[in-house]
Amino acid sequence: MAPILEVEAFYKSFGNKSIHEGTTFSLSKGECLGLLGGSGTGKSVVLRALIGLETPDSGSIKFKGDSLDDLSEEEWFEVRKQIAYVFQNGALFDSLSVYENLAFPLRRHTEFSEEEIQKRIRKILGELDLPHAENLFPAELSGGMQKRVGLARSLMLEPEVVLFDEPTAGLDPKNTIVIQDTILKLKKLGYTSVFVTHDMASATRICDRIVLLQNKKIEIEASHDELKDKNHPIIKFMTGDN
Predict the structure, then answer these.
(1) Pairwise CA distance, residues 202 & 83, whole Å
(2) Rounded CA gap, 91 and 45, in Å?
(3) Taking 80 as the threshold, does the pLDDT of residue 119 lie above it?
(4) How many domains does the chain have?
(5) Which pLDDT does position 128 carry in this prediction?
(6) Cβ count near 42 (within 10 Å)
(7) Which of 90, 102, 227, 235 could bond 146 through an S-S bridge, CB–CB 3.0 to 4.6 Å?
(8) What is the pLDDT of residues 52-86, one digit of tens each?
(9) Model confidence over 158-202: pLDDT tens digits?
(10) Measured over all CA atoms, what is the biggest interatomic distance in the chain, rounded to whole angstroms?
C-alpha cells in the first residue's frame, strides 16, 4: 500500500541558518509515526510544511500520492481539512465555550445542521472522556484538558491525518498518561498520525515507528519492537547515553 504522506529530500533554511538538508520519511495509513530530535532540529518546521505554513526550499511533499508543491491557498484550504494540526497549547478561543470552540470549524466548513453539530461534538467529547466539558471556558480547564479539547477540535472535520506537536510538553505525569491514553484510543479508532516529541517514554508507548532527526535529516529509524532494546541508538540518543 502506498504511503499516505511522503516527505522526500526536504531542504529548508531561514536566512543563513540551514535547518533541513534532505529530510526524508513516509507515513502509512493507520500508523503513528514518532518524529524525534533535539531542540532546534526543525521538527515543528516539518509539521508546518505538511499543512502549507512553511514552504520547502527544495524537495517534495505528497499526500495520498498527490504533490503538495505549489498549491494555491484555496487548494491548501482543502488539504487542511484532511490534515489536522494539534498545537501545543490547544490554540482555543478564550472567549468561546468548549462547545462553541468545537462548533466553529463545523459551522465554517460544513453545512451541518445545529442538531448534527451537537451530535458530532458530543460524540467526540465522549470519545476523549470530556462529556461534561462543553459549557466550560478555556480558562476553567486544566492544561491537560485544554490539550484534549484542542485535540477534539482538530478531529471535528474527520481528518485523515493528525499532526501532534509536542502534545505532552509541560504536563505533569498524570496528565501525560491521559494524553498518551487519548492518542492510543484514537489509534484504535483508525486515525493516522505524526507524533512530534522530546518525550521518549510517550513515543515508545504510542508510536508504531520512530524516526530520529539529527544533523539536519532523518538519520535513524526504528520499529516499536526494535526500541525494546535499551542499547538501540535512538534510545541512547534520547536518554543522553551516547
Answers:
(1) 22
(2) 18
(3) yes
(4) 1
(5) 84
(6) 24
(7) 90
(8) 999 999 999 999 999 998 899 889 989 999 999 99
(9) 999 999 999 888 888 888 898 899 899 889 988 999 999 888 888
(10) 56
Radius of gyration of the chain from Cα atoms? 18
Contact 36, 238 (CB under 8 A): yes
CATH at residue 43 = 3.40.50.300
CA pair distance 198, 108, nearest whole angstrom: 34
pTM: 0.90
DSSP state of 15: T
Residue 109 lies in a domain: no
pLDDT at residue 241 tops 90? no
The string of pLDDT tens digits covering residues 206-237 is 999 999 998 899 988 888 788 777 777 777 76
d(CA 22, CA 28): 20
Q: Which domain holds residue 47?
A: 5-92+160-238
In whole angstroms, give the CA distance from residue 81 to residue 78: 5
Establish how many alpha carbons lie within 13 A of residue 209's alpha carbon, considering only the half-sphere containing its beta carbon. Answer: 16
In this prediction, residue 91 carries a pLDDT of 76
State the DSSP code for 141: S
